[in-house]
């Protein structure tokens, strides 16, 4: 008789125990030594954490689609809004192999900086993240690669959103009404420039009081083209960002109040600036951070870039008119931190709390839900991630590696049943292209000042 050392529920029980103890990642072995050595990360987990087939006892396998007929077998591996989408709205999700090489879950430069600087971060007396030896701002990569508490986990999300020193995303968005018809369609560009916590270890132009500059400008349709916004983040996470916007109707740049972070930038959009990267506000303007669990999850962490498709766009399906969801690929994430927090610095915020599921292999979120002030589920903000390689199509970094970034977002307001489908595209109207470095361009003066957003608005 064969006696199993670990029964099928061992991994789940072990993760629950780890959440209570504040332990690091890994069940059978610590995860991060395996990542540092380039080893197979499956050595850190029992089979049911690595294999959806093992977890479901054969009810769902790699290559299968999760549909309304079998979604109950993986209900505990999905956030509740994704489960509802599959169970009630006709969504289907393809299962692809579990990633066992953690380097595929990062831009290589960011992973190298995280390994180089691992163990060098600490919180100072104000709650900000500094390099332990010097007391100066963080020097690049994940500050807490093996996050053990909620403050460390949120710091990993907040300090470098796109995990490159500069990111410029050409984006196309479709806003789908409850009846399944397209209500709005927008083209825009989102740009992020890290002033500190940079992969290259420098401080951008000596701006040592800033963390990042982030701008967004809309290029279509004609009646909204020219609307542009600039958010300037201070390194001190107790400070609110400065938010300025240029609206063509007013023909001037004006400053927006802090609580504008919880309002859509334009009609029909379901997401707020606060939702970006599941960490759209400075971490110390939220509070009551806590880890409420650790668990395996299904997440869109690989094989979600369609570089061989026109403009990198994903096919769509589901909903009343067949256009509510992207076709997406999910795989097992063997261990995710489940984090909750409340907007303590925003007394008039419509959000009561947020819940974030974070893949411990790269400390990036795979699911995010907000709740309203009554405690009812309100919105989900689901990201897709991928290395940018699809057959012969590839986007390379400066060292020739296939690069990594987000590929799509599904922002679903389930109370109004409105969906924003957000696609990271190769290019968008106005001639703008996606890029994951500055390519030698003075992006600061071109896109990231008040003068720049006014110029973009009147161009």
From TrEMBL:
PROSITE patterns xref list: TAT
InterPro entries: DUF1329 (IPR010752), TAT_signal (IPR006311)
Protein origin, superkingdom: Bacteria
Protein name listed in UniProt: DUF1329 domain-containing protein
Organism: Solimonas terrae
Lineage: Bacteria, Pseudomonadati, Pseudomonadota, Gammaproteobacteria, Nevskiales
